[in-house]
Amino acid sequence: MLTTIGALLFTAAVNGADGPSRNAAEVARQALARELGVAPEGVRVLTISPMEWPDTSLGCPRRGTQVMPVVTSGYRVLLEARGSTHAVHVSGRRAAVCAGSAAEPRVAVASRLASLARGDLAARLGIETDAVKTVSVRPHSWPDASLGCPEPDRSYAQVVTPGFLVELEAGGRIYRYHSDLRRVVPCDRPNR
After folding, report:
1. Do 124 and 103 contact (CB within 8 A), yes or no?
2. Which residues, in sequence order, are CB contacts of 58 under 8 Å at separation 6+?
3. Mind listing the pLDDT tens digit of every residue in the chain (192 residues)?
């Protein structure tokens, strides 16, 4: 019975997904099941998102392993098992079960980064954080580690960097912040 229910949940979650993303979901389910010591049927797929990571760690570096600085395409699969959400990053048949903040759902990451940007802008303008409103937070991949806001006379790693474009409003003016998945950078180009 549990096997049938697990199969139905898996089928429902990947309904409409293409072949590669279906394969990634199955690789992720198997990897998480092994990691947690549960049957794959006890792992439910929540979302599957295409990703590019700046190296072969798949965004989940492990201490003591070598990483090649090669852009690696794959999928970020969010799964539910034992009442918790887990992130597994997959490229081909390789899977990395992420721990800590790497498993943070995309909505939570976006919210945290918007909050960081609001705090930074409020401090820079000398106003209360409540006076800064979030206009939008959109996923975006930057062409390099400058996050689209290069500083003069500084070099940056030439790797595609996933993150967000955060637009804020304060005093009737729009401010843009660019982010990776950990930090925000002000790009003061007002949107007119």
Report:
1. no
2. 72, 74, 89, 90, 91, 94, 95, 96
3. 333 333 333 433 444 456 888 999 999 999 999 988 899 999 999 889 898 888 888 888 777 778 888 889 999 998 888 878 888 999 999 999 886 544 455 667 888 889 999 999 999 999 999 999 999 988 888 888 899 999 889 888 888 888 889 999 999 999 999 998 888 999 875 443
The answer as to whether 43 is a domain residue is yes
84 and 138 assigned to the same domain: no
Helix residue ranges, H only, the chain: 2-13, 19-36, 106-125
Let me know whether 98 and 110 are in one domain.
no
Residue 192 lies in a domain: no
User: What is the count of structural domains for the chain?
Assistant: 2
Name 169's bridge partners: 133, 174
Does residue 23 sit in the same domain as residue 93? yes
Q: Are residues 92 and 110 in the same domain?
A: no
Q: Which residues contact 12 (CB under 8 A, 6 or more apart)?
A: none
Contacts of 82 (CB under 8 A, 6+ apart): 36, 38, 42
> Can you give the residue range of the structural domain that contains 122?
106-187
Q: Assess whether 181 and 154 both reside in one domain.
A: yes
pTM of the full predicted structure? 0.48
